[in-house]
Amino acid sequence: MKKGKKILLLGGSAGGFGVILNLLKTIPKDFPIPILVIVHRNPKFESNFESVLKNTFAIPIKSAEDKETIEGGKVYFAPPGYHLLIEPDFKLALDNSEPVQFSRPSIDVTMESASEIYKENCIAILFSGANQDGAKGLLAIKNNGGICVVQHPDSAEVATMPQAAIDINAQHHIYTTEEIVKYIHQLN
Amino acid sequence: MLNFTELDEIIEIIKNFHDLDISGYSKASLKRRITRIMDINKLDLVGLKSNLINQEGFLNYFIPEMTVNVTEMFRDPEFYIALKTKLFPYLETYPHIKIWSAGCSTGEEVYSLAILLKESKLLSRSFIYGTDINHLVIEKAKQGIYSLTKLKEYSENFIKTKAEHSLSEYYTAMYDAATIQNDLKKHLLFSIHNLITDGVFNEFQVITCRNVLIYFDITLQEKVFDLFYDSLCKLGFLCLGSKESLINYKRAHLFKLIDKKNNIYQKIA
Description:
The complex is a heterodimer of chains A (188) and B (269).
Chain A: E1 7-12, H1 17-25, E2 35-39, H2 49-53, E3 61-63, E4 75-77, E5 83-86, E6 92-95, H3 107-118, E7 122-126, H4 135-143, E8 147-151, H5 160-167, E9 173-175, H6 177-187
Parallel strand pairs in A: 1-2, 1-7, 2-4, 3-4, 7-8, 8-9
Antiparallel strand pairs in A: 5-6
Chain B: H1 4-18, H2 27-40, H3 45-54, H4 58-66, H5 77-91, E1 97-102, H6 108-119, E2 126-132, H7 135-143, E3 145-147, H8 148-160, E4 171-174, E5 177-180, H9 182-185, E6 188-192, E7 204-209, H10 218-231, E8 232-240, E9 255-259, E10 264-267
Parallel strand pairs in B: 1-2, 1-7, 2-6, 7-8
Antiparallel strand pairs in B: 3-5, 4-5, 8-10, 9-10
Helix pairs in contact in B: 1-3
C-alpha cells in the first residue's frame, strides 16, 4: 500500500460534462495521476459513451469496475446508477445504496470516500451543475488537507453547483475553465 | 464519523459477541452504512459498541440497517430481454423450472421474474426462491405491496422489456399502494438465507444475484461463487448485476459467458 499517491477528482453535472470531456482531451496519455470523474448521468439512457468516445482521448478512459486497482495514466468514470467509493486498499468499489443529493453517482459520496483514503493527496475540481452535490465532498477534501478548485460561477454554464461550494468556503481556488486546464497540466 | 480502524473494532465485536463474521464486506460501503446507523440513533462509537455488546436484540436491528436494500422491478430492462430471448428457450425444455434470486431484498426482482415467466407462459411450471439475510425485507417481499408511484416507474421499465401486457395487469391498486396478484405468489417462496454462512439448499436452473456481490471483497465473492456453482444444475445460468462479473473467480473457466453486457454465465463443467 503506497501512501503519498495522488488522485484527481472531477465532479460536475448540468453544463459540466462537456467541459470535463474537453479538458480530458488535452490530457497526455502518460499523465501520472489517476483521474476519477463523477458526472450525473441518467441510467435510463444508454451509457457506454466510454467505449464510444475512447478514441477521441489520448489517455485511456473507462467505466470504473468494482474492486479494480486504481492506476495512474487512466481515467475512471463513475458508472450511472452506482456510487463510486474507494477501499482502504486503494481499490475502487461500487455501491447501489440510496441516491445522495438526488444523485447516484453522487459527487459528495466519492469525494468524501477519497478524502479519507488519500487525505492530503486528493485534488478535486467541481464544475458546472444545477444542484448542490459536491460542495460537502469538496469540504471533506479540504478538511483532510487536499486541494480544492471550483469552476468560476461566471464561467460555468449553471452556477448553482460551484456557488454552493463557494458558499461554504470549500475551495482553495476559483478558476475559469482555461485556468483549470492550465492548473491540471502543471500537476503533470 | 467512523474511521477504518474503528470500523475494524466494530467488526471484531460482532464476530466475538455474535459469532457473525462480516470482515469480508466491502469496507468503504460498510463504513457508510454503519455511520448512517450511528447518525440515525445519535450514537457515538462507545454507544454503538455498548449496544452491540449489551443490548438484547440490537443486532436484529443492526444487520437489516447495515445491508443495502435498494431494488426495483425490471431494473436494467435489457437484462430481462436477455432472459426472455437467451434463457427462456432453453428453460422451456425442462418440466420444472427452479430459480433462485439471492439477495432479493424487498422482492421486486422476484416478482419481475414471475411476471416475465407468466408473459412467456412458463410460470405454471416454475418456482422462484427469493432469499435475503435481512428478515425485515423478507417480510415486505412476502406482502408484495408497493407504492403506486414506484409501480409507475416500474411500468416504464416493464414496457422497455418489450412486454405484451401492461404491468397493471399484475397488481391490484388500493389507494396509493398496490398488491401483487396472488396467482403469481403461488409460484414463489421468500425465506432468510445468509450467503456467507448458509449452504446449498436446492438445485436450480437459474440463479440471479444482482448488485449483492459489490458489497463483498474478492475473497468473499469467491466463496459465494462456489456456493452458486454447487447450487446450479449442469448447464444452469448465473445472472450477475450490470457491474459484476466472474473476472476474479478462480473457477471462472467452469462457466461460459453467454451475455457480456448483462453478465449472464452458463455452468459448462
